[in-house]
Design goal:
Number of domains: 2
GO molecular function, one term: lyase activity
Structural class: alpha/beta
Order of helices and strands: HEHEHEHEHEHHEHEHEHHHHH
Helix content: 40-55%
Number of helices: 14
InterPro entries: Aldolase_TIM, DapA-like, Schiff_base-form_aldolases_CS
Keywords: Carbohydrate metabolism, Cytoplasm, Lyase, Schiff base
Number of strands: 8
Subcellular location: Cytoplasm
Oligomer: single chain
Strand content: 5-15%
CATH architecture of the largest domain: Alpha-Beta Barrel
GO cellular component, one term: cytoplasm
Radius of gyration: 19 Å
Strand order of the largest sheet: 7-6-5-4-3-2-1-8
Distance between the termini: 57 Å
C-alpha cells in the first residue's frame, strides 16, 4: 500500500532549484569503485554552491556499473550528503526488474527522489509504451518522487514529452517531472507550462542554461557543475539582476570550456580535470577510454590557454566584461 500522506509530504512544494551536479563515480585505476572519495566530492560540491546531487546517471557511468555497485554508490552519496541537499538516484536499466530493484533500494536508503531513463536496447517507440514502463518502474518506490530522464541522444527514444507527461500524470502517481536533456527549448517550455505549471522540469544542457533560464528553468542538472559551478551561479545572478550582457559573457565562458573539453573524450577528460583540481576520481570504466598522459597534458594546456583555471573560480565578473 502507498502511504499517501508521506508521499504528499515529500512531493508537496519541493521543486528542485539551482545547480544540481550530475556526480562522477570515483574509481581506482583497475576500475573498481573508490567510494572513499565520495565524502570529499560531496564537500567540494556543496562548498561550490551546488544545491543537489544526481547520482549514477550518464555522468556517473551508471549504465556501466553492476546493480550492486549502483546501490553502493547511491548509498555512499546519500550518507555523505546527510540531508544537506537533495540526492536524486538514477535507476534506469534495460531490465525493468533490475530498475525496480534499484528504485526500491533508493527509497530504502532515503534518497530524495529517483529518476530513470527508459530501456534503450529495445527502443521505446510510443508515449503509451513509455508510460507503461515508467509506471512499473516507479511502482517499486511508491513513496519517492519520480523524474523521467529524457535523453534521446542516448536512449534513441525521441518521444514527445508533452504527450508523455499528459499520459503519465494519472498512470504514475509519483511522477513529479522530467530531467530534460535535449536542446528543444520550445518543447521544454511547453512541458513547463503544462497543466498550470504542475511539473518540475529540470534543464540538462549546460551550454544552453542561459536560454533555458530565460524560458523559465528553476533548476538544472549537469556534468560541468562539478568543475565550474561559479560560472553558472554568476550567470544566473547577472540575469536575475537584469545584466543580460554579463550573463551572456558567463554563458560564453561555459561554451568555451565545454568546446575545449569536447576535443577529448568528454567524461574521461572531465575526470582528469577534477584530478587537476585536487579531487582524484580516477579513470572511467570501459567502454569509455581513459586519457593518455599526452592527452591529459594537452588538455591542461588547452584549459590554461582559455583562462579556465582563473575564471572557473569565484570571480565578480568575466575578465572581458
Amino acid at each position: 500500500m502507498v502511504d499517501e500522506s508521506l508521499l504528499m509530504q515529500r512531493m508537496s512544494g519541493r521543486k528542485l532549484s539551482g545547480l544540481i551536479a550530475a556526480t562522477y563515480t570515483p574509481m581506482k585505476q583497475n576500475g573498481d569503485l573508490n567510494l572513499d572519495v565520495v565524502p570529499g566530492m560531496v564537500e567540494k560540491l556543496l562548498s561550490d554552491g551546488v544545491s543537489g546531487l544526481y547520482v549514477c546517471g550518464s555522468t556517473g557511468e551508471g549504465m556501466s556499473l553492476t546493480t550492486q555497485e549502483r546501490k553502493s554508490v547511491a548509498a555512499a552519496y546519500v550518507s555523505a550528503t546527510a540531508g544537506r541537499a537533495p540526492v536524486i538516484v538514477q535507476v534506469g536499466h534495460n531490465s525493468l526488474r533490475e530498475a525496480q530493484d534499484l528504485a526500491s533500494h533508493a527509497q530504502q536508503i532515503g534518497a530524495d527522489a529517483i529518476s530513470a531513463t527508459c530501456p534503450s536496447y529495445f527502443k521505446v517507440s510510443s508515449s503509451e509504451s513509455l508510460t507503461h514502463c515508467m509506471r512499473d518502474l516507479a511502482s517499486a518506490a511508491p513513496e519517492t518522487p519520480f523524474y523521467y530522464y529524457h535523453i534521446p541522444m542516448l536512449t534513441g527514444s525521441n518521444i514527445d514529452m508533452v504527450d508523455f507527461l499528459t499520459r503519465a500524470d494519472k498512470a504514475v502517481p509519483t511522477l513529479v517531472g522530467l530531467k530534460y536533456t535535449d536542446t528543444k527549448l520550445f518543447e521544454f517550455q511547453r512541458c513547463l507550462e503544462l497543466s498550470n505549471r504542475k511539473f518540475d522540469v529540470v534543464w540538462g544542457c549546460d551550454e544552453m542554461l542561459l536560454g533555458a533560464t530565460a524560458t523559465g528553468a528553476r533548476a538544472a542538472i549537469g556534468s560541468t557543475y562539478n568543475l565550474a559551478a561559479s560560472i553558472y551561479r554568476q550567470m544566473t545572478l547577472a540575469l536575475a539582476s537584469g545584466q543580460l550582457e554579463t550573463a551572456r559573457q558567463w554563458q560564453s565562458k561555459s561554451i568555451e570550456m565545454i568546446c575545449t573539453i569536447g576535443r577529448y573524450p568528454f567524461h574521461p577528460a572531465m575526470k582528469a580535470i577534477l584530478t587537476m583540481q585536487g579531487l582524484d576520481v580516477g579513470p572511467c570504466r570501459l567502454p569509455l577510454e581513459s586519457l593518455t598522459q599526452s592527452q591529459t597534458d594537452s588538455l591542461r594546456e588547452s584549459l590554461k590557454a582559455i583562462g579556465f583555471f582563473e575564471w572557473s573560480g569565484d570571480l565578480p565578473a568575466p575578465s572581458d566584461a
